[in-house]
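User: Predict the complex with flavin mononucleotide.
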Amino acid sequence: MKTRRKFLTILGGGVVVAAASGAWALTRNPTTARAPWAAAGQILDGDPRTRWLSWAILAPSPHNRQPWIVDLRIPDEITLLVDLNRRLPDTDPFDRQITIGLGAFLELARMAAAEEGVTLEVEAFPDGADTASLDLRPIARLKVMTKAATPDPLFQHVSVRRTNRATFDVSRAVSQPDLEAIAAEAIPLRAGFSADATEVARLRDIAWRAMVIEMNTPAAAIESIDLTRIGRAEIEANPDGISLSGPLMEGLALTGLLSREGMAQFGSAGHQAMMDAQKPQFDTAMAFLWIATDGNDRVAQVSAGRAYLRANLAATGRGVAMQPFSQALQEYSEMASSYAELVNALAPRASDRVQMFARLGYAPLPAQSPRWPLATRILKA
Ligand SMILES: Cc1cc2nc3c(=O)[nH]c(=O)nc-3n(C[C@H](O)[C@H](O)[C@H](O)COP(=O)(O)O)c2cc1C
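Assistant: Here is the predicted structure with flavin mononucleotide placed in the model:
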């Protein structure tokens, strides 16, 4: 029982460096998986585009799938493609969230170039797109322009931007000016926020019930469980997905208390522990931010990703932690009533399609999430 309680306390932290001390703890950190954060700003093969892209790969993406591939074969251009093997067919059946992640990547690439005074003009879906699923047509074409660019003040926060899954400090409210400044980064899209206690309680409840539906919908739950990497060796082998790291996680895995198989057994202690571990995230949401678009075409989804990234950076700059709660927004049939409930709660402030819904609050900065190195994301001729 004691062990289970400990497990619940730590799993809630998402990527966790457990409190265990000594050299063993240090050696269990997935350092290679985090190396791209330190490598950002470096150049490959003398090609300045790789320096911008080394920042872009730090973008947030659903389940940390990092669905980007870049084609650098045309000089002074970057063609962004999707890696079709990195989609989430059960929780993201129309690739909407994957497209949002690609939008965040684009915005970071643009900002990194601007930092050097270079204008990257972004044309999203130059050859058109399908709304049912992404395909091999480019997500975007980025062209180096002669016009000088102005650096973006948000860029300074890139290396400390995180998705924070920790329990937030319930004694600290997020101020109205902070929320306004964060939401302002999502303009001209329709962004809104609330820190009103009654409304936050209602939104916490809708979001949590959506998570319960997700965890009890076999295809959706198993898609996430399959992408859970437990311990250093798994994270280093596949630096993506949902990572559970640190000596305590590895210890629990060794004793059989933590396993993908256990999580996937509905009604089992392992499955229940996975749910319980996430509850504090919902209970400690201190404010919510949402980003909606007029319509839901691919260009709108890319814009939502760019806006989310900017809002996340603005929050970082103000010391505000952020975590999306995407379950209620997902399109599989079991989730339809949750989405309707959420839209109803946000009405009339959210328009056609709510693209991102995130909690805000205060918590210590977690470790960086894993990344595949840039070299693995460049299309080989
Ligand atoms: C479209 C989208 C949806 C996301 N949904 C969730 C979510 O529901 N819960 C969550 O904890 N993180 C969510 N995230 C955050 C990713 O899991 C996170 O970006 C990724 O793990 C990389 O971590 P980082 O943002 O700290 O770099 C989402 C990100 C994107 C772009």
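The chain has two domains: 40-159+368-377, 167-216+266-361.
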